[in-house]
Amino acid sequence: MPTNMISRQNAEAIIREQVVQQVFQDVPKQSTFMSLARKLPNMTSNQTRMRVLDVLPMAYWVNGDTGYKQTSEQAWDNVYMTAAELAVIVPIPEAVLSDAEFDIFGEVTPRVTEAIGQRVDSAAIFGINRPVEWQSDIITRARQAGNNVNADPATDMYTLLLGEGGVFSRVEQQGYNVSGVVSSLAMKAKLRSIRTDDGLPIFSTSMQGATQYSLDGNPMYFPTNGAFDNSVAQLIVGDFSQAVYSIRQDITVKILDQGIIQDPTTKEIVYNLAQQDMVALRVVFRMGWALPNPATRLDSDRTGCPFAYLEPATPVTTQTVTFTVKEGSTAIPNASVNVDGAILKTNASGQAVFNLRTGSYNVTVKAKGYKTITDINITEN
After folding, report:
1. Bridge partners (DSSP) listed for residue 310
2. N or C: the chain end with fewer CB closer than 10 Å?
């Protein structure tokens, strides 16, 4: 005989749902580059000029009591750090704000801050969406200096990292000491098995150091903000004190309730805040960075780089760009060709060959006894 009852389905409309009073999300990730690089005093204008040692003086032995003493020179160069702006507007209807159980602005702001850190790391380290005001990224500079080591599967990882010709060695050969390591999370599994000849691990964990991980005694970071590009590099080492940055405008948050928002491409009005009862969270951040790369006794031509990286077995494709410096039909050797901070000297044929990824670059060419040319711009597609 059928039994009548009030089932869950019958009462579904009046059953109270338990709502956990928390938004489940991971902790916002900040900029790895800014935590490692050297911070300079805040910028007082859009552009900061740094004086960098360009030519080192020499000393000479004097032959005999009446020998002639030789002369030498010393020269300086200007390196410019220009502020670029990161910004975003998050529009929200006022009705949504009123009906929400949580502080929406409070939830959005740390995520926007995280996005700013991700953009800074991507541009400064990998050149991804690099603003035109900034010089070449760390990876491009290291590649141009020959500091890219291919992760050949036939070569053991210890040799690729710490052996002669490994990434640590590439930095040390140019007069710098490695101060930090940045790597993809995928490298952890490979690093755990590496041992010295005495059986000691070179990759270790500790709760006492500046970071939980270290490689050959150097602090190691595994960014989780989405900025690390595995297709370009597996691991980056370098003297991060040589990379400097400065803030022109710290992260500024403003709530707008008037004005219009236009589509950046079509310029059509998307939202009218006053007419549509909306507010918008506007976040702005401005900073600049540079890798001055002064002349040293081990790198007097400034063609080196204090960074090196381990690239995948199949490296990212780059374009070969050859600059030829001539006076009429006569080649000018030993001219300095500077492509957004990466410097090469021309050979006997007056040529300097760069390997560049897609993008726009500013070029400066100078040679002793000749006028410096600075109004060169190239675009690689």
Report:
1. 149, 235
2. N
